[in-house]
Amino acid sequence: MITLPAMLVYTPFVVATAPLSAKPYWSWRNELSSAGATPIEERRIAWWAGPPSLGGAGAIFLSLMSTFAT
């Protein structure tokens, strides 16, 4: 089965970029700000982490469903 190795590889990325609370998001934005990013750059960087996280969460869900549906 290829779904388990794929999930093991992709799950840490999804968890890192899609935190369960807003606190990690705001600490990430503060780090970007202290590195010299403007608020517009902070939002752009944070926004681009969203689609891969959502796609990865969907892929993990679908692979789990296909595993348990058989």
Description of the structure:
The chain has one domain (2-12, 24-69). Helices cover 83% and strands 0% of the residues. It has 3 helices and no strands.
Work out the helicity level. Answer: over 70%
Q: Termini separation (Å)? A: 12 Å
Count of DSSP E strands?
0
SSE ordering: HHH
Strand-pairing-aware structural class: mainly alpha
**SS summary, helix count:** 3
What characteristic shape results from the CA principal axes? elongated
Q: What number of domains?
A: 1
Q: Summarize the biggest pleated sheet.
A: none
What average pLDDT do the residues reach?
77
Radius of gyration, taken over Cα atoms and rounded to an integer in Å: 15 Å
Strand content: under 5%
Which parts are unreliable, with pLDDT below 50 for 5 consecutive residues or more?
none
Short description:
With 70 residues, the chain is an all-alpha fold. It is built from 3 helices and no strands.
